[in-house]
Amino acid sequence: MNLPPLIQSFVLHFGEMGSRWGINRTVGQIYALLYVSPEPLCAEDIVEALGLSRSNVSMGLRELQAWNLVVHKHLPDDRRDFFTTPDDVWQILRTLAEERKKREVDPTLSVLREILMQPAGSDEERFAQGRIAEMHGLIDQLTTWYDDVKRLETERLANLLSLGAKITRLLEAKDRVVTLGCRRPKAAREAGDTRTDVARAGGE
User: Fold this and answer.
1) SS3 for 73?
2) Is there a contact between 14 and 53 (Cβ–Cβ < 8 Å)?
3) How would you class 31 by CB atoms within 10 Å of its CB: exposed for 0-12, middle for 13-18, buried for 19 or more?
4) pTM, to two decimals
5) I need a surface site. Which of 1, 30, 60, 169 has the fewest CB within 10 A?
6) Rounded distance, CA 34 to CA 40, Å?
7) Is 10 helix (H, G, I), strand (E, B) or coil?
8) 125-142 per-position pLDDT tens digit
9) Could you read off the pLDDT of 61-97 as tens digits, one per residue?
10) Rounded (5°) CA angle 95-114-22
């Protein structure tokens, strides 16, 4: 690689991590290079920086475009195609999450639904369907939560993530308020009955 040591370390690490996120090492390296580059890069720039073949770079850029992780740029008086990444790191996070959901979570939910719709021919299959239904319910619930969260504005999403364990305390406080709200009507009725009894006693 024809890169400064700091940038090379980042590019190499991102390539390794990319393979765990569902993209191959070369694609991860190309993305990392574009992410830290102060200017948009063309394919020739990437070939020179990473020491990759032109065909590998072209395929990597096409895959990144399919993931919506790169932005296509045109520079004045230059007919070559240049590429960069979105400026907003939150947009990058949202895109990665959405694309992985499409490729991994949605197909899994479809398969689970198909299995659950099939008639069970034995006790063994009925037991299996029960377990599969639990898995489907959990994934479906997480998907619903994700769909709600992804519609949040970036500032609200950042605030939500910063809450951490505070969310647990907030939910506990909400439960206490609900519990008190359920008890008050009963207490009010009892107090009303007491006042009625006192009034009756006074009338007598």
Assistant:
1) strand
2) no
3) buried
4) 0.60
5) 169
6) 7
7) helix
8) 999 999 999 999 999 998
9) 998 988 888 988 888 888 889 999 987 778 777 877 8
10) 30
Extract the tokens encoding 38.
């102060």
Sheet holding 41-42, edge to edge: 41-42, 82-84, 71-73
At position 154, the amino acid (one-letter code) is T
3-state helix, strand, coil in the chain (%, to 5): 75, 5, 20
What's the pLDDT tens digit per position in 27-60?
999 999 999 999 999 999 999 999 999 999 999 9
The answer to whether 116 and 129 have CB atoms below 8 angstroms apart is: yes
Q: In the numeric block, which tokens belong to residue 107?
A: 């197909």
CA distance 17 to 65: 19
Classify 71 as helix, strand or coil: strand
CA gap 68, 72 in Å, rounded = 10
**Cα 129–chain centre separation:** 28
Return d(Cα 9, Cα 3) in angstroms, integer: 9
CA neighbor of 145 nearest in space, from 105, 91, 86 = 105
